[in-house]
Design goal:
Shape: globular
Oligomer: single chain
Helix content: 25-40%
Number of helices: 11
CATH class of the largest domain: Alpha Beta
Strand order of the largest sheet: 5-6-7-8-9-10-11
Largest sheet: 7 strands, parallel
Number of strands: 13
Number of domains: 2
CATH topology of the largest domain: TIM Barrel
Radius of gyration: 20 Å
Strand content: 15-25%
């Protein structure tokens, strides 16, 4: 068994903007495991300012982990709990070793029959004119579920944008989700949520900053809009059930890169089912290598909830993994090269 790490930088077509700032390019670390004649690839791409494992010495750390594995010939992904993106990469590669085929993790209908996974059309933060253009484009492309990232421009202007969507299609025709990325101040969050509730929203992600369990519990209890926890889940390994019972959200957002791969996300799903919570998975600006792995994992679960898996098209170049989008669904095509195109 030989483990190696290769760093690749992928520039965005336009900066990917969130309330935490704008990303102009993406540092991707491809983790390759060569074993039993298979060269399996997983993606380790923690996000600056968000992932618990991102730091300036990340490349050196990953090379050190690889050297250790090569010397000991012992590979336990869950030894690296402080490096969730590395766990995700190792899990993805190990699944390919098991299937004996590169980029194949699970033989589900998504792979075998070309079944599509429903996804939301994501509207990135920008000026109002740009966001309006994005919305019109998503509607023309056939999306019935739109998600807007909010918090970058004037709140009243954002409300006008959402209102224009709702005037175009009612709640039966169009599901609208919003993602605040923790931008609302605690003292004003319920006021903002009340204002947003006029638009019959499906949910709001992370309305206030993470790490405030009592404050978030109050928001979830009083919000007129169902609340989905996102950043709140990052770094929570041993207290998953305690968090869900205390905060009592309506939904969980699962990002394997940030939460430590499939095993830990599956634990969140088990708890969501136990406490009757909804969930969906989203990518975290991975390349198509990571997106392909997440999509295949999602396809193993029995859920009709729309996922957040359409970000692979944001890069100037990306890996050809046979992924395509049509009418609000993500598909996996049989023919692909795996090359950077």
């Amino acid at each position: 068994m030989i483990v190696s790490v290769n760093k690749v930088t992928l520039p965005f077509k336009i900066p990917a903007t969130t309330s935490r700032g704008a990303y102009k390019d993406r540092e991707v670390y491809l983790v390759t495991i060569e074993k039993d004649g298979i060269s399996a690839i997983g993606e380790c791409s923690p996000l600056i300012g968000l992932s618990i494992d991102y730091n300036e010495n990340l490349e050196e750390e990953l090379e050190g982990f690889s050297k250790e594995i090569n010397e000991t010939q012992i590979l336990d992904p869950y030894k690296y709990q402080k490096h969730p993106a590395f766990i995700f990469a190792l899990e993805s590669a190990l699944r390919q070793i098991e299937t004996k085929k590169q980029h194949l993790l699970y033989s589900t209908d998504f792979i075998l029959k070309g079944s599509g996974i429903p996804i939301n059309g994501l509207i990135w933060m920008a000026d109002s004119e740009n966001m309006r253009e994005q919305m019109e484009k998503k509607l023309k492309e056939g999306y019935s579920i739109i998600k807007l990232k909010i918090g970058a421009i004037d709140f009243d202007e954002e409300c006008r944008l959402i209102e224009s969507l709702r005037k175009h299609k009612n709640a039966f025709q169009l599901e609208i989700r919003v993602d605040a990325n923790g931008v609302f101040e605690n003292d004003h969050v319920l006021e903002k949520l009340k204002e947003l509730s006029r638009f019959e929203l499906h949910s709001i992600e992370q309305p206030i900053k993470q790490g405030q369990w009592d404050a978030m519990q109050e928001v979830c209890a009083k919000s007129p809009i169902p609340v989905a926890l996102d950043e709140e889940l990052i770094g929570v390994l041993e207290e998953k059930e305690k968090l869900i019972k205390h905060i009592n959200p309506q939904f969980l957002i699962l990002k394997p890169t940030l939460l430590g791969g499939f095993k830990y996300c599956d634990e969140w799903i088990s708890l969501a089912n136990k406490y009757d919570k909804g969930w969906w998975a989203t990518s975290a600006l991975e390349s198509n290598i990571g997106l392909n792995a997440i999509a295949q994992w999602v396809s193993t679960h029995d859920t009709e909830m729309a996922q957040g898996l359409g970000t692979g098209q944001l890069f100037v170049k990306n890996y050809d993994l046979g992924l395509s989008l049509k009418n609000g669904y993500l598909y996996k095509n049989a023919n692909f090269t795996g090359d950077l195109i």
